[in-house]
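RECORD TYPE: inverse folding
INPUT: structure tokens
STRUCTURE:
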């Protein structure tokens, strides 16, 4: 059963809070890449309900407007901080704030309990090779003009959805059209900011979570 409008707005509110946490980690040196996947989810909700605002109740429209304004405010702050970070003018901080962020993330995604001592056994060479192969088993595609690279974007979308299903993550909110628009905007944004032509998109599963990364190709 698809989520209700109120449930989607609640999810958007949680995503905005998580976005701030993960951007703080990114600026503090705790993450290598910005949380583009969360941005994409938020923008999908804004786009989906912005196009049919007339169907929303007054309270829902008010809530959507407030959340959209909050996201826009954070987005502008993140954009400015990212520019400073790319210019090498930001300072990494590993103090109390960074520790608090790590603690919040640990609560949201707790580590699995350690195996009992009697259950542990040395890995065979075959098992080590299999684990290494699995770790490197990420889907990659390079885009320079997503509007005319339909096949690459479709393959990326299918890989992203498949990885999420395998990880047991929610996929009902994903739309191919919205995903294409996200890739188009993200590619253009990186091309303008980084003065590059090609952007590599990587779908990989890290600690049970599916990640979509956008990497500048030199």
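DESIGNED SEQUENCE:
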């Amino acid at each position: 059963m698809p989520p209700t409008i109120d449930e989607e707005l609640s999810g958007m509110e949680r995503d905005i809070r998580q976005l701030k946490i993960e951007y703080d980690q990114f600026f503090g040196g705790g993450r290598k890449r910005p949380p583009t996947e969360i941005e994409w989810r938020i923008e999908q909700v804004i786009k989906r309900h912005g196009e049919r605002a007339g169907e929303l109740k007054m309270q829902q429209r008010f809530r959507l407007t407030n959340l959209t304004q909050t996201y826009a405010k954070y987005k502008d702050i993140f954009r400015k901080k990212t520019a400073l970070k790319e210019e090498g003018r930001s300072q990494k901080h590993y103090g109390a704030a960074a520790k608090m962020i790590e603690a919040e993330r640990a609560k949201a995604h707790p580590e699995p309990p350690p195996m009992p001592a009697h259950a542990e056994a040395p890995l065979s060479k075959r098992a080590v090779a299999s684990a290494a192969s699995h770790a490197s088993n990420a889907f990659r595609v390079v885009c320079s003009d997503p509007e005319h690279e339909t096949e690459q974007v479709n393959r990326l979308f299918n890989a992203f959805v498949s990885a999420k299903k395998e990880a047991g993550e929610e996929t009902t909110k994903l739309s191919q059209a919205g995903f294409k628009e996200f890739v188009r905007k993200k590619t253009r944004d990186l091309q303008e900011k980084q003065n590059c032509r090609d952007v590599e998109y990587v779908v990989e599963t890290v600690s049970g979570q599916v990640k979509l990364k956008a990497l500048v190709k030199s």
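NOTES: Residues 82 and 88 are 10 Å apart (CA to CA).
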